[in-house]
Write a structure and sequence with these properties.
This protein has about 250 residues and is mainly α. The chain has helices at about 1-25, 25-35, 35-60, 60-70, 85-90, 100-155, 160-170, 170-215, 225-250. Helix 3 (about 35-60) runs parallel beside helix 8. The longest helix is centred in the middle third of the chain and has 54 residues, at about 100-155.
């Protein structure tokens, strides 16, 4: 449980620091957000969804920790864990005295696959935030280039008010640049926030995996080879090696 609380406290502290930063610089954050309300709103909403999802995933590990602690202590009548360790708990509910190396490897591989599948949704949110940031960058560049092209095409340099016309026409290109920079900033910032929380979630899952691995490794039997059998194995290997050398000499000849 110490690892669970440690990772959860890191997540809560990091989220609190981010929230305090937004509160302290709320004017700047508001100015960045309104540069493109729709796209930046989607990025901020996706970031909030990723943060909530990470906390939900971590809290879902609490029954896994409780089951694992009860199982390693040898408690009787423990309930089955609901998610990640359910199939492993079904296999181990008879509490075998010894496991084989292949059995241990199969159990650990099963847990790793389930943990990887459980992290896919958070990983997808991080990739989506990066994509939204890049989308806003290219969208803003398109608006900027199109705005400058339209401005230059509509200018009449023989007009005395050409400077006023140019100043009024710079609104669209500058708006495109604001969209490009603000969406990139929010997208990368959101991916950094959700990525850090996803890392803490992964560490919490790894703590479960390593504890179960250490416990099952202590109950894994290693096959012993008697001296006579080992001598036969060495003799067979020597014969194979001599046969390979003979084949090589014949090929070279």
């Amino acid at each position: 449980m110490n690892n669970f609380h440690k990772n959860l406290n890191r997540m809560a502290l990091f989220t609190a620091v981010v929230l305090c930063g937004i509160i302290l610089f709320y004017r700047m954050f508001l100015a960045i957000s309104v540069a493109n309300v729709y796209l930046n709103g989607i990025i901020i909403g996706t970031t909030l969804f990723g943060i909530i999802l990470c906390f939900i995933k971590v809290f879902q590990l609490l029954p896994e920790y409780r089951w694992l602690n009860a199982y390693t202590r040898g408690a009787r009548g423990i309930k089955m864990p609901p998610r990640l360790l359910y199939s492993v708990a079904v296999m181990l509910r008879t509490r075998p005295q010894k496991l084989t190396g292949d059995g241990l490897r199969g159990i650990l591989d099963m847990i790793l696959v389930r943990m990887e599948d459980d992290r896919e949704s958070v990983r997808y949110v991080v990739n989506t935030l990066v994509f939204l940031g890049l989308l806003g960058t290219f969208w803003g560049l398109i608006l900027t280039v199109g705005g400058f092209a339209e401005l230059i095409g509509n200018l009449n340099f023989n007009d005395d008010a050409v400077m006023e016309t140019m100043q009024a026409g710079l609104t669209r290109p500058l708006g495109g640049m604001a969209t490009a920079f603000t969406s990139s900033l929010l997208g990368l910032g959101g991916s950094l926030i959700v990525g850090f929380l996803a890392l803490q979630m992964q560490l919490a899952q790894s703590a479960i995996f390593h504890k179960l691995e250490d416990f099952l490794s202590s109950r894994t039997g290693v096959a012993h080879v008697e001296n006579g059998a080992w001598t036969k194995i060495e003799s067979g290997l020597d014969k194979i090696s001599n046969a390979v050398r003979s084949i090589d000499r014949k090929i070279e000849a």
